[in-house]
Amino acid sequence: MTDPRLAALAARLPDLRLLTDPADLEHYGRDWTRRWPPAPLAVALPGNLDEVQGIVRWANEHRVAVVPSGGRTGLSGGAVAAHGELVLSLERMNRALGFDPVDRTLRVQAGMPLQAVQEAARAHGLVYPVDFAARGSCSIGGNIATNAGGIRVIRYGNTREWIAGLTVVAGNGEVLELNRGLVKNSSGYDLRQLMIGSEGTLGVVVEALLKLAEPPPPSQVMLLALPDMDALMRVFALFRARLALQAFEFFTDAALRHVLAHGAQRALEGEHPYYVVAEFDAAGEAAQQAALEAFEEGVNRGWIADGAIAQSEAQAAALWRLREGITESLAPHRPYKNDVSVRIGAVPAFLHAMQALLAREYPQFEVVWFGHIGDGNLHINVLKPEALADADFIAQCEHVTRLLAATLREHGGSISAEHGIGLVKKPYLEGTRSAAEIALMRGVRQVFDPNGILNPGKLF
């Protein structure tokens, strides 16, 4: 180990696992954006809280930047290490530490994958309800860092609704025990909530105390084909009024073509411009009858062109694959992604403005979009033509993103719904936050991380 800084770290923490092999540096130094060549100093894989604290204190003494790392499934460059930073990966800290049956909480280490958290909750007869397609690879710490939402926000809210407490190593090296699982706690600022969504710029989340919920009642899954964009919000309003929705996800015909080519099975005949996967409580005959009546009303009003309802768990999984398989099916095309949100009430006007903008500015590219219509979150994927150089493709996409950011500002929206700002969206933060807010955010960061060692260059 030739770097004297790493030698000092190894001497301070002799049991710490450090990686410096070029293949490891490349693997841990990037996230799903793939836009920045990874160039970390090394990768540290701590096994406990003391080692995390030791790393942060060492980083302050030697002025080494640290990039906290979970599953690195983000799409904003928030976990990229491209300038000689130390990657602090929590992947070894991946265990459930304890369950409290009275409080219905599960204490977990930050590197635990979301799917493993869900399985641990089910083992106690409860559920951790935050969910999305990357459940098998994303970590709970990364979910907390970006306040991840996913496919069931309409029923359960974002990650922040389910965090009862956090153990964090702040940027100054102090260990903070935040909220300690209290249901009511009006003793000043809620620093737990401040940490959630902070993208690793204030502290390193080491452990989380998660709230668990009762399993939802039996549900049914329905696939709907819609004749036009305006029908999306009309059907959503109809179903929300009649049913207890758990999810309401939409995608376009272009998205369907890609996921079918990737191995999913077609569920409806014919071609339609828009589709919805809806999941709703169906515990009894009355709830099932309400769903059929809502569907029939949508058909009679001309809002629904066709539909199918799952008759088994296997059929429900097949319908969900049409939505959840989209991101994987698009990956070979190296898409440029936008992850945006507006108020639910602003969705219709924004959809029309967005569609006009994309049609005008992207005539040469295929654009695939889908999202969580029930919470105002849209994912826009611009597919890269094989013959176009990466730099030229990104430059053209960033030009359109600036226009999209302006459109979002007009509709009171956000350039980042659930993947954070990271490196990708820094130029557009001012469209979502005022100058006064950004100044206060910088001040908060200075307090928690006075030497600026945690994830520098991200967010601001």
TrEMBL record:
Name under which the protein is recorded: FAD/FMN-containing dehydrogenase
PROSITE patterns named in the record: FAD_PCMH
Domain called FAD-binding PCMH-type: residue spans: 36-215
Entry-linked InterPro entries: FAD-bd_oxidored_4_C (IPR004113), FAD-bd_PCMH (IPR016166), FAD-bd_PCMH-like_sf (IPR036318), FAD-bd_PCMH_sub1 (IPR016167), FAD-bd_PCMH_sub2 (IPR016169), FAD-linked_Oxase-like_C (IPR016164), FAD-oxidored/transferase_4 (IPR051264), Oxid_FAD_bind_N (IPR006094)
UniProt entry keywords in alphabetical sequence: FAD, Flavoprotein, Oxidoreductase
GO molecular function: FAD binding; oxidoreductase activity
Biological-process GO terms, alphabetical: respiratory electron transport chain
SUPFAM superfamilies for this protein: FAD-binding/transporter-associated domain-like, FAD-linked oxidases, C-terminal domain
Family (UniProt): Belongs to the FAD-binding oxidoreductase/transferase type 4 family.
Source organism per UniProt: Fulvimonas soli
Listed cofactors: FAD
Keyword Flavoprotein listed: yes
Keyword Ubl conjugation: no
